[in-house]
Design goal:
Heat Shock Protein 90, Ribosomal Protein S5, domain 2, Rossmann fold, 9-stranded mixed sheet, 6-stranded mixed sheet, 23 strands, binds adenosine-5'-diphosphate
């Protein structure tokens, strides 16, 4: 007599089941990944048993997972010839949700979060109910001659009865739901689609996943052909020497939707507290949405060849967000990872080790393949700089040696280390100048004097550059100095003394000049910073004129102003002229000269002038004299 046992699910299992049945989760397709992964585990278990138990004989080549579609009855069956389940195992394993699963429940009471977790790790067997009205599990344990059929139509409970099965293993039969207005379930009954899903989620399962596929023979007659749907050995598991560069490149362009091959392929195998294989790519150009908020960083995360997550963002720091690729780890299993990802210690370990690896590879590229590095830096350098800036300099140690800047000597890119190594004996600072382009920067009056001293200047043409230097404060004990900073001082002690004296003598004149300019400058003074140019503007304090420009382009800017000093070349004939006008009490003319000089200085800096008409009138008046 066939005894049928009717049972209720345990409370927590019931909750999870409810959630699955009523799931609004859009990624319903992941049920297949879960069931395939269970089947693969069952085959694994049998295989390991055979290694230690002489009674269990297994021919490795026979191990397989099989999919069967029956369109007429709307069923999809996932079968394996693995270890199987006894009656009590069916009850324990499928009637109660695993302990880790119940913990997931306690931690995540609100529904939204649960749904995210389905996306991240899946919740095993019960996900079958996202797509099925009824599930039958026919199983025979390797330790028994008897087979049992477990049946459930969801929340009402399940039944177990004795059944017939010729050999060990498990068949999970899903009665696929009817489609409704919102969701189409038909795709789970289509060979083509199932094949795509296997390729997407389970391509690298170690056992063949087979299915009878309908094709046409040469007479156009439909025939059934047995096909292995998965490739089984992932490219990142193949021995390095067996994979050609081309294959990596094809894999990258295919998988990460790029039309250009990657700039660099980084493959590593790590054994240790957390063992993993990774295959990373540095793209040769930034994706079109890279610098927008739509761009999502992350690496694919595999556990023993099973895709668990498509974009695991915790594996990459923001400043390396351009890296594409994947990580496959034995230590992150579908079972143990039912906790929120952020708290996963393994992920943290892997992320740390990847960061070091990426940094090292970039450094090597910088040293050995400068051309490609410059290409890389053009597209992604901004992200590295932003890493320093947004961490308030805390990430400086990781990133500072990856930065390159065009420099005044030879006009090529140099690293900060190269700059410092090339510094003159008497040089104290790292000099830089800001502007839109190198040509424009070269026209800055102060640049000439610094160059005359044979000091190298870094050209900062990116709007973020100076902010980054401010965050870094110094490199290798050398301070950064904007050539337009008032503090720029290249004089000898004697020259300094003489200049100070001169400035003191003329302090009244400078006060008047400052007044003529309605306090648009905080000070007027003579300088030795200039060689041939008559005037320049310098800034005092933290905000330079270049930073003022950037800050004021930002939304909600608070009208930040750089504190500006008007400096006049003491060695230029204009300084004598000013002194003369002042001595003779020709205040009206002194005012006109002051206004012209100030406007000139602004023009040189690339700053707008307040009143162009006034300036042109003044110049005309003077030249017609
Ligand atoms: P998980 O696989 O994450 O432990 P599941 O709910 O998917 O959780 O499965 C529960 C248990 O049921 C598994 O741990 C396993 O012992 C058993 N099981 C599921 N599918 C199979 C299968 N095809 N063959 C043998 N045992 C299985």
């Amino acid at each position: 007599m066939n005894i049928v046992k009717k049972k209720q699910f345990k409370a927590e299992s019931k909750k999870l089941l409810d959630m699955m049945i009523n799931s609004i989760y859009t990624n319903k397709e992941i049920f297949l990944r879960e069931l395939i992964s269970n089947a693969s585990d069952a085959v694994d278990k049998l295989y390991y048993r055979s290694l230690t138990d002489k009674k269990v004989k297994v021919d490795k080549d026979d191990l397989e997972i099989r999919l069967t579609i029956d369109k007429d009855n709307r069923t999809l069956t996932i079968s394996d010839n693995g270890i199987g389940m006894s009656e009590s195992e069916l009850e324990d394993n499928l009637g109660t949700i695993a302990k880790s699963g119940s913990e997931l429940f306690k931690e995540n009471n609100d529904k939204k979060k649960d749904i995210d977790i389905i996306g991240q790790f899946g919740v095993g067997f019960y996900s079958a109910f996202m797509v099925s009205d009824k599930v039958e599990v026919l199983s025979r344990s390797i330790d028994s001659d008897k087979a049992y059929l477990w049946t459930s139509s969801g929340a009402s409970g399940y039944e177990i009865e004795e059944a017939k099965k010729d050999s060990n293993g498990t068949e999970v039969k899903l009665y696929i739901k009817e489609s409704n207005d919102d969701v189409s379930y038909e795709e789970f009954l289509q060979e083509y689609n199932i094949e795509l899903l296997i390729k997407k989620y389970s391509n690298y399962i170690r056992y063949p996943i087979k299915m009878l596929i309908t094709t046409k023979d040469k007479d156009d007659k439909e025939i059934k052909e047995d096909k292995t749907l998965n490739s089984m050995i992932p490219i990142w598991k193949k021995s390095q020497k067996d994979v050609k560069d081309e294959e990596y490149n094809d894999f990258y362009t295919d998988k990460f939707y790029d039309y250009e091959k990657p700039l660099k392929v980084i493959r590593s195998e790590v054994e240790g507290r957390c063992s993993y294989t990774s295959l990373l790519f540095i793209p040769s150009h930034a994706p079109f949405d890279y610098y927008t908020k739509d761009y999502e960083k992350g690496l694919q995360l595999y556990s023993k060849g099973v895709l668990i997550m498509d974009k695991c963002s915790d594996l990459l720091p923001d400043y390396f967000s351009f890296v594409k690729g994947l990580v496959d780890s034995l230590d992150i299993s579908l079972n143990i990872s039912r906790e929120t990802l952020q708290e996963n210690y393994q992920i943290e370990l892997i992320a740390k080790s990847l960061e070091t690896k990426i940094k090292k590879e970039l450094e090597t590229m910088l040293k050995e393949d400068r051309e490609n590095y410059e290409k890389f830096f053009k597209d992604f350098g901004m992200q590295l700089k932003y890493g320093i800036y947004s961490s308030y300099g805390m990430k400086k140690d990781v990133l500072q040696d990856l930065l390159i800047f065009k420099s005044s000597k030879e006009k090529k890119y140099v690293t900060l280390k190269e700059y410092v190594d090339n510094m003159k004996k008497d040089q104290e600072n790292i000099y830089y100048a800001c502007g839109e382009s190198i040509d424009k920067i070269d026209l800055l009056p102060q640049v000439e004097t610094v160059k005359d001293k044979d000091y190298e200047i870094l050209y900062l043409t990116d709007y973020m550059d100076e902010f980054v230097f401010k965050m870094m404060m110094e490199y290798s004990g050398k301070k950064f100095m904007n050539v337009q900073d008032e503090k720029l001082d290249l004089d000898s002690d004697k020259e300094k003394e003489q200049l100070e004296k001169k400035n003191k003598e003329n302090s009244d004149m400078f006060t008047s000049m400052k007044n003529y300019l309605n306090d648009k400058v905080s000070k007027v003074q003579f300088t030795h910073k200039l060689k041939n140019h008559p005037v320049c503007l310098t800034t005092v304090g933290d905000v330079s004129t270049e930073m003022e420009k950037v800050l004021n382009q930002m939304p909600n800017n608070e009208g930040v102003k750089a504190e500006v000093i008007l400096e006049i070349n003491e060695n230029h004939p204009i300084s004598k002229k000013l002194e003369e006008l002042n001595k003779k009490g020709k205040t009206e003319e002194l005012e006109k000269y002051t206004k012209i000089l100030y406007s000139e200085a602004r023009l040189i800096e690339g700053l707008p002038i307040d009143n162009p008409t006034e300036l042109t009138n003044l110049v005309c008046e003077l030249i017609s004299k």
